[in-house]
Design brief:
Layout (H helix, E strand, L loop, with lengths): L3 E5 L4 H12 L3 E6 L6 E2 L5 H14 L5 E4 L17 H16 L1 H5 L5 E5 L22 H18 L5 E6 L3 E2 L6 H14 L1 E2 H13 L6 E5 L2 E2 L9 H14 L1
Parallel strand pairs: 1-2, 1-4, 2-3, 4-5, 5-6, 6-9, 7-8
Antiparallel strand pairs: 9-10
Helix pairs in contact: 1-7, 2-3, 3-5, 5-8
């Protein structure tokens, strides 16, 4: 049966590879991206833009079988969105919260829906900086990425819809280029010796669309299950983050 698959960050890297693989299976693939050639163009670091594109997709696709979340970007210096939010937090975490929430009715209408959140689950470094989640003090690119990654872990824990939720850490993958030339050069050098081919990293995602895991929440770190007792999957922290996020939006 033809499936409807929504992919954020689907115009490059792993998102693009997944979109191509699912399209080859005959799916209706709905790609959201910031590039001019994106079928659904939106700045997902903007709350208003994310709401707009989610509403457009919901009108056109009353049933969504899979929501696949890839959108992320590295910000060497702290930048703020028009909403006054730190950009990594807004794009890497908040856009995923919004898409999952706003498209929940369409996911609930599908027979066996799944959400796959591609982040860094299994890692324990970093965490939500509860007294300064927008990192107005001591900003660092790695610190921002780690915070948003741990926030995505908690997003999966807090999920309440019908869809099965998968937190997936593919590991270092040869997938696209950074817009920052220095970061891009370092990443390309490392990728030649240490990165997995993108086809290997996306293979589980492509398969989960057809065969979602049985558990309500599944966390996979480079092919290995992550125990639900890991401190980064704490339900109390998930509820705390959900309350903070709802105040933001």
């Amino acid at each position: 049966m033809t499936k409807t698959v929504v992919i954020s960050g689907g115009t490059s890297g792993m998102g693009q590879a997944t979109a191509m693989a699912r399209a080859a299976r005959g799916d209706r693939v709905v790609v959201i991206g910031s590039r001019a050639d994106a079928p659904y163009r939106a700045d997902l670091s903007s709350i208003a833009e994310t709401r707009r594109v989610a509403a457009e997709i919901a009108r056109e696709h009353p049933r969504i079988d899979a929501l696949l979340l890839f959108a992320n970007r590295l910000y060497p210096k702290r930048t703020e969105t028009p909403d006054g939010l730190e950009s990594t937090f807004a794009l890497y975490y908040l856009s995923r919260y919004l898409l999952g929430t706003l498209l929940a009715p369409q996911l609930d209408a599908a027979g066996n829906p799944v959400i796959v959140n591609v982040s860094g689950t299994g890692a324990t470094a970093g965490g939500v900086v509860w007294d300064d989640p927008q990192l107005t003090r001591r900003y660092g690119m790695v610190r921002a990425q780690l915070q948003a990654g741990r926030a995505n872990d908690l997003l999966g824990v807090a999920h309440t819809g019908r869809a099965r939720y998968v937190l997936y850490h593919p590991g270092f993958t040869r997938s696209g280029q950074s817009p920052n030339p220095v970061i891009g050069a370092v990443t390309r050098t490392l990728a030649r010796v240490a990165a997995r081919p993108v086809e290997d990293s996306v293979r589980p995602i492509v398969d989960w669309v057809d065969h979602p895991p049985a558990a309500k929440l599944t966390a996979i770190d480079r092919g290995r299950p992550v125990p639900p007792t890991l401190r980064t999957l704490d339900p109390a922290d998930a509820a705390r983050l959900r309350a903070y996020t709802e105040r933001l939006v």
